[in-house]
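We emphasize that the prediction below concerns an isolated chain of 181 residues; any contacts that depend on oligomerization or on bound cofactors are therefore not represented. The input was used exactly as deposited, without trimming of termini.
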Amino acid sequence: MNRIFTYPASIALGAAMVLLTLAPSSHAGYTSATPPTSGPTVPGDKAALDRRTGIASAPENAPECVKRAIWATNYLRTKPYVWGGGHESFYVDGYDCSGTVSFLLHHAGLIHSPVVSKEFTGYGANGKGRWITVYARDGHVFAVIAGLRLDTTGFGGEDGPRWRLSGRPAFGFVARHPDGL
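Result of the prediction step, given as a token string:
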């Protein structure tokens, strides 16, 4: 079991709050100095996407860390795709695939620094998770969180860090998940 990227949620959340307090308010579209501790929810175990706004609602039955990760990641929905974006910092003007997935996992309290796509092939535990699954290979990574795909590839649609309703082929990707999620 590989746990090199895990942090206790309370420590990671505290560190995220400190970083957000120090970060300029324009980063990642944040309008306050702390990550959101609440947001839209829907009944059940599956997240929902408002197609008009691109905002995901967290499932009421999800663990709190999953809800907070979804709410925080909603802030990326208007950011552009930028190759290498999110590798140096969680708070930049644009994100690539690994920067996007790193942002999500950071706000779930599961990693403390950005990770590149190939490194995700050894993240957490093998296989699909109940709440979060990371699909990784050398060159690309995406995640499925409570049934929604978080990806920078739109398959004919807009590229950039967005929630997607449609799945994508996972051939050639390694499925990994955070322990317990």
